[in-house]
Amino acid sequence: MDLLSMLAGNPIRINERTLSYGLGPHEEKQRTDLWNTVKKHGAYEQDANNGGAHYLPAGENPFVNQGIRCDNCVFYQPDKYDQQAWDSEKQAGGCTIVKDAGTLVNYIHPDALCKFWIIPNELMGENK
After folding, report:
1. Interatomic CA distance for residues 109 and 70, integer angstroms
2. Average pLDDT over residues 18-32
3. How far, in Å, are 109, 123, 125 from residue 23 at the CA level?
4. What is the phi/psi pair of residue 113, to 5°?
5. For residue 94, which phi and psi values (nearest 5 degrees)?
6. Other C-beta atoms within 10 Å of 54: how many?
7. How far is residue 103's CA from residue 115's CA, in Å, rounded to a whole number?
8. Alpha carbon distance 70, 106 (integer Å)
9. Per residue in 39-58, pLDDT tens?
């Protein structure tokens, strides 16, 4: 089953850029379970507490050049804060399952990372 079919009737907002790539059964189960947890308990905080996403800001993500970053994740929403520029190349975005802290410095940066990432294989690798 392709990703579009799996998403039919599913209210999870997904990063549209990732729709052309498929997820394996493990990743799809993880995506669904995380979404159900957020529906029941609310979005995760960015912090490193037991209810936190262990969010790494863009400058601290050691895997950014391997494509393991927020803007490749199925939960990333690049249009959430499209009016708030981070720099000349990238815009701040949002996340379906991780809260922002309500200030520009805590919006979800495209090059950041958290422990809940789900990224299609096609978007990972050197210089992705």
Report:
1. 7
2. 85
3. 23, 11, 16
4. -160, 150
5. -135, 180
6. 15
7. 21
8. 13
9. 898 888 888 888 889 999 88
